[in-house]
Amino acid sequence: MKEFIFYNPTQIVFGENQTKNIGRYLRNKKCLFLYGGTSIKQNGIYNKVMDSLKKNNVAFVEKSGVKPNPVLSFVYEAIELAKKENIDCIIAAGGGSVIDSAKTIAAGFYYDGDVWDFFIDKAQIKQALPIYVVLTLAATASEMNSGAVITNEKTKQKFNIRGDALFPKISILDPTNTYTVPKNHVANGSVDAIVHLLEGYFTKKYLSTPIQDGFVETLVKTIISSTKQILKEPENYDARANFMWSATLALNGLTTAGIGAYAFPNHMMGHSISALFDIAHGSTLSIVFPAWLKYNKDNLSQRLQRFGKEVFGIDNPDKAIEGLESFFASIGAPTKLKDVGLAQTDIEAIAQNAVSLAQKWGLNEYTKEKIASILKFAL
Ligand code: NZQ
Ligand code: ZN
């Protein structure tokens, strides 16, 4: 086991009927109530949160309109509103896009400069407003980690921030809140959580980590089986619950603690596709990840052999890649660039855009040429 520090202060409140308790944690506070489009009004989560806030005399201002692949211009507006209203906490009711926007607003609230400075490593986050999450979509684990990803529409950069101050204080994980998540977003979430687990599993150099390998394999198997159940039966509580908790554990630091150095090259390439073409995060990963595995097949043959055996019960690296790619296709996730309307002629721009994030993340071996060669496996 490699040396590590594991720090995760987020309190998880898990289970049915927990949403109505959100207000109890917020008495005597003035909150920014942040959400996306219309989904929380349609499925009743909005009313549950409102009732709880009123019952507990919580003061709040509302701000809706976070879009998937959340953007910097919206964050600027919300920071201005938060400062004007002098709020002292943020309620984020949504998926990764709402939570990531909340984290960025929370950091920007205490910063006099441009909040984008944090994303380009020009400034470090020292302080942030406390964030309270009502999770409505299981995918990113933003509800239990310290990261956020935002797109700067002007520069076409989809970049991330991190900081201990960004861990949500409390996250309510009520699986019934995800019953209405449409099939395409179930698929996106499933792919995202699986790739969070497998980026570390396939890029770590240090191999004597049976606990972490076992966590990853169990979580991937659980995500695969619960995704299949959810697609057949959207209101299956156990399937939604197992899926939700797996997705949270997939990127809360647990599975990477002790594995030594690892990298997230597929996220680097996926973020470039989202930045340029506004394609959902999970859909970029179901295209890029099988391509990356094929490109690296020879170096990864031992790991692929183990992965194939543990997850799919097959003993062959090629078949392991095939198994994962056909699972993605079977749940309706795109696996080729053409599935999202992209072609060979787009590869150059994607690779060019990805290089700046590769450099930010210290992935210096990912040159424009190498990224283009990987993406050709997705044609
Ligand atoms: O906007 P509304 O109307 O709420 O609809 C949303 C949105 O259109 C809908 N939705 C959410 N909950 C629902 C629901 N529809 C019906 N019923 C519900 N209960 O789902 C759509 C997608 O939501 P979004 O928040 O964008 O999805 P997700 O949770 O996958 O978040 C994706 C974003 O998170 C980033 C991604 O890059 C992307 O920008 N990530 C954040 C990470 C982090 N902070 O740790 C890590 C990830 O790797 C990822 O990069
Ligand atoms: Zn992801």
Which key features would you list for this structure?
single chain; 379 residues; alpha/beta; Rossmann fold; Dehydroquinate synthase-like, alpha domain; 6-stranded parallel beta sheet; two-stranded antiparallel ribbon; binds 5,6-dihydroxy-NADP; binds zinc ion
What is the name of the CATH architecture of the largest domain? Up-down Bundle
Structural class: alpha/beta
**C-alpha Rg, in Å?**
20 Å
CATH fold assignment of the largest domain: Dehydroquinate synthase-like, alpha domain
List the helices and strands and how they pair.
Layout: E1 11-14, E2 30-35, H1 39-42, H2 45-55, E3 59-63, H3 72-85, E4 89-94, H4 96-108, H5 116-119, E5 131-135, E6 147-152, E7 157-162, E8 170-173, H6 183-203, H7 210-232, H8 237-249, H9 265-277, H10 281-295, H11 301-312, H12 317-330, H13 347-360, H14 368-376
Parallel strand pairs: 1-8, 2-3, 2-4, 4-5, 5-8
Antiparallel strand pairs: 6-7
Bound molecules: 5,6-dihydroxy-NADP and zinc ion (ZN).
